[in-house]
Amino acid sequence: MRRASRRAPAMAMAACAVALIPLAVGGADDDASPIFDVRLPAGYRDWQLISVAHEAGSLNDLRAVLGNDVAVKAYRDGTRPFPDGTIIGRLAWKYVPSEENNAIFGQAQSFVPGAATNIQFSVKDSRKYAETGGWGYGQFEDGKPNRSKALMETCFPCHARANKADDFVFTRYTP
Amino acid sequence: MRRASRRAPAMAMAACAVALIPLAVGGADDDASPIFDVRLPAGYRDWQLISVAHEAGSLNDLRAVLGNDVAVKAYRDGTRPFPDGTIIGRLAWKYVPSEENNAIFGQAQSFVPGAATNIQFSVKDSRKYAETGGWGYGQFEDGKPNRSKALMETCFPCHARANKADDFVFTRYTP
User: How far off is chain A from B62, nearest CA to CA, in Å?
Assistant: First the structure.
């Protein structure tokens, strides 16, 4: 891991940290989320399933939550807080009716994933992300990080409202 | 694999096949689906994700479709018909609102998995299941096969209404 990526990710420090990175290195950071420096984890689509959900309202999506090996083991063992190295990935797709299935089933009942909306990752590193509960965040669209610092600043304040006993994670494991 | 399990699974032959199995062997069959002799695959919960869905109406569930390595490779490569050895698993849970999430998000938008309903498997064996499009079926509740022959007799007639070009499978892979 690059030494620069070990910097403290506290939101208050973000502007300073960015200012310290030479422009030539800054180019590489286009592949990482602002503030938290989270990159798209290799092979995440092969990870095991933690759970699924439907968010209605303006999100209007179907979602799957996957975890790397550390995350899935911690979920299954009930280990909290999650150990360093945990990565939880939330994939989401537009919530669309399946006209094809509905025609076969004879009623409007089937909803399936449409186009991908975005993928979010929560990365546990209790030292690097000490000021945000040990969690770093990233959102990716079409394989690229969303580079909005304002968006990233919304991650932890919302997760902080989840139970501390759940280590600021919303999703429960579904056997 | 037991020799008895290689019998042709045609629905019309099921009564004869069962009649030919001695009672002592019949006891072991309590672990398999009727007609198709499908058993709960070891380690299926570790399989990779194919897709997710919501079925409304009387099913009223959230579901995840997982696949063994053969299934996932075939989905990703677009291989049709699916090769022998393919197993597709459909897990489903009651569709329930998350009061906890809704309180945090400030609106009723979040639906999560409740209690498991059942798990269904589609097993590809073009020789064993020649008379049902190459597919054998099983439904499991609390880890045990549903032993209703009448239920199993509904599987292929419904799947047969899916496109033959999709090899009688409803679920598409969601990247």
Answer: 7
- Residue B39: closest CA among B148, B140, B114: B140
A–B: how many Cβ contacts below 8 A? 92
* CB spacing of B104 vs A161 below 8 angstroms: yes
Q: Specify whether the CB–CB gap between A58 and A97 falls below 8 A.
A: no
Substitution target in A112, A117, A161, A164 with the highest count of B β-carbons within 10 Å is: A112
Around Cβ B147, how many Cβ atoms within 10 Å? 14
Q: What angle do CA B104, B108, B109 make, to 5 degrees?
A: 90
Topology adopted by domain B28-166: Chalcone isomerase (3.50.70)
Dig out the tokens for A150 from the structure: 């304002």
Give this complex's ipTM: 0.84
The residue ranges of every structural domain in chain A are 28-166
- Phi-psi region at B163: left, alpha or beta (left = phi > 0; alpha = psi -120 to 50): beta
CA distance B20 to chain A (A): 36
The continuous run of DSSP H or E covering A8 comes out as none
Model-level pTM?
A: 0.85
Q: Chain B contacts of A66, Cβ < 8 Å?
A: 49
The pLDDT profile of chain B, 175 residues, written as one tens digit per residue, is 333 334 434 433 333 333 344 333 444 579 999 999 999 999 999 999 999 999 999 999 999 999 999 999 999 999 999 999 999 999 999 999 999 999 999 999 999 999 999 999 999 999 999 999 999 999 999 999 999 999 999 999 999 999 999 999 999 999 9
Report yes or no: A64 and B64 within 8 Å, Cβ to Cβ: yes
